[in-house]
Each structure stands twice: as C-alpha cells, then as structure tokens.
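pinning this so it doesn't scroll away 📌
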Amino acid sequence: MDAAHVLAALALGYLLGSIPFGLLLTRAAGLGDIRAIGSGNIGATNVLRTGNKGLAAATLILDALKGYAAVLIAASFGPLAAIAAAVGAVLGHMFPVWLRFKGGKGVATTLGVMWGLSWPVGAVTCVAWLVIAAVSRYSSLAALFSIVIGAVVAWLTLDWRVALAITLLMPLVWARHHENIARLLNGTESKIGQRSTA
C-alpha cells in the first residue's frame, strides 16, 4: 500500500469522525446548541444533561458508528488504511474543522474504531466501561480505564500495528479528559445522571 492510500484513509476517517451528531440531534430536537449546556461538550454524556435519554443514546450510537464505518470502509484498502481511518475518525471527532477544532472527548468514537479493528477488543472495552460505570457511577472514570483495558487486550491479541494504533488513541482520550481527571481527584466530578454545569 502506498502513502496516498493511507493519507486518503486518514482523511476519510477525519471527515466521518468530524460529523457532530450531538450538536445536530439536539438542534433538530429544538434543544438549542449543546455547546451552551452543561460541560459544553458535543458528546452523549453532555446530551444526557438535556434530560433527553433517547437523544443521548442516539448520539452515543452514531458517534460510535461513524468510527466503525470509517474503519470498515478503509479496510477494503488494507490493514494500514483501516488503522489510518481509525486514528482519523477519533481526531475528527475531537478536532472537527466545522466547529473550529472544538469537538468531543472521543470515547464513543474510539469504542467504534476498536469494534472496527477488532470486535473482541471492542466488546471487552465496552464491558469494562459498563462494569466500571455501574460500580463507580462516573462516566469519565469508566471511559479512562476501559480504554486502558482495551489497549492491554489489543497488545495481547492483535497485530502490533493495530495494538499500537489503539494505544496511541489512549493518551488522546486522557488528554481530552484533563478537566474530568482534576474533578475526580478533588471529588467534584458529576456522577451519571446528575445534572451539572461542569
């Protein structure tokens, strides 16, 4: 595979990943700009703060599906293209050009690309998220540690190139959660279902 195919896959992933479903859905539902609500994030957790669970679930699913779709489409050009599309999709969600590069935190999209690259790794990561979230009631804590668990499983089960790509997504997700990490450490992080302005 040549560099042109890899760059094309990266661009494809970025364009798909940059679709701001949370913003589009809340506007279509007449709830205004999600960026003016709660944390200002365009992801499912913040959409949930509108009180509309259906929209939050739809945002979560669509944000995951865009990452999954990017990987599947690019995979027809080879494994390196799939990896490039995976990274591009997460970067697109986090830094969408349409929103002046101010996007979401990338958890759902990262889960989506994990499913695309390896469904067992994606499944393990999702289960880890559910278990940690159920025990702690912190969405951010579940996101942070489920991604780590997914990366570890990837190294144990996948080709090193795929495992490396998933591992490189981990610090991106953690960096986007820096405010959540600070609130977790000082005990002010909001729990799942709790309305918050942060």
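📌 and the second one:
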Amino acid sequence: MNIDLTAMPATIDLLHAGLAAIALVFFILMLVKGGSKTPAPTEAQPEEPATVAVPEAHLTKQLKTANPDAALQLLSLLQQEARFIDFVQEELTGFSDAEVGAAARVVHEGGQKVLKEYFCLEAVRDEQEESRITLPDGFDATTVRLTGNVVGHAPFTGTLVHRGWKASEVKLPKLAEGHDAHIVAAAEVEL
C-alpha cells in the first residue's frame, strides 16, 4: 500500500481522531485478553464456511486467564504520555475539527513514544502490501487472517492488504510490590 503523505490533511477530522482512539482501545483490549486470536462466536454464519486445517495440538489447548496488570500499565503509560484516557473520555461534539485534530496530534505523538519505548514491533509478513501472495497448505492461521470470499482449502492466493504486526519484545517497567495497577492515572491536586 503506497501512502502519499503530501495528500494527507493538515488537521485530523473528528472521525479519524475517533477511529485512532478506537484502534488504541482495541489494542489495549487485545493485550488484556492475552493476545487471543480467537474471534467471539457470532450468530450469523457464512453460507460456505472456510475449511482451514488447524493442527490438533491447537484444539486441545486450554484458555488461560490474562493478568490485567500489563494492560493497565500500558493504559497508564498512554495516559501519562498521550493523555489517551482524557481524550477518549472527552465529549467532542462542542469542539471544532481543528481543536480535535490538535488534541489527536498529542495522543498520536505520545502513543507513538510509548510504543517505541516499550515495544519492539515487527511486520508479520515481509511482502509489500497490495502484492499477491500464496498461503500454502498448513500455513499458520494465527499469523494470517483470511478475509473476503474464503472458501475451499489451502493453498490460498490473495492480495496482502496489511502486513500485520507482532511484538518481538515487550519492555514494560517492573511494578513495585503493592502497586495498585488499577489506578491508571492518580488524581492531581495543586497546592
């Protein structure tokens, strides 16, 4: 996917600021759930469900309960550096798009700082976005999500829409004994 940065608007409109905030919330929720890739069951079933071979070892794994401390710590860091919670909790209808865009810039810059400082992120796939790729029989279904008209059996050939992200390293600070991770931002009192 090629992005022309000269065509990007100088300010971020309300819709895009909201989408960025929602994406961060989903990222945090993914961390809370321990990065589980299993989607929640839905009532609507596709007409022809995909048949992707899943190794038997995956079928016998038990679900584990994620410790929320790391997700709460990340939320705290995003609040500290990006004022993330303040931005998402704010009612934005009374603000102009320029004001929301200015606030979104703070959230973006602070969020980017947190990601760079505490995570090593790498692309899941090496190919260029929008290139045609073939997924062989037995491909790792935890690293690639099939979308569109998914029918039949692998090998699958399609267009790489997004290269994906994986965290190769997480460097969150250690929490002090007795630290209450549920306090993601302490109240402030100026004297």
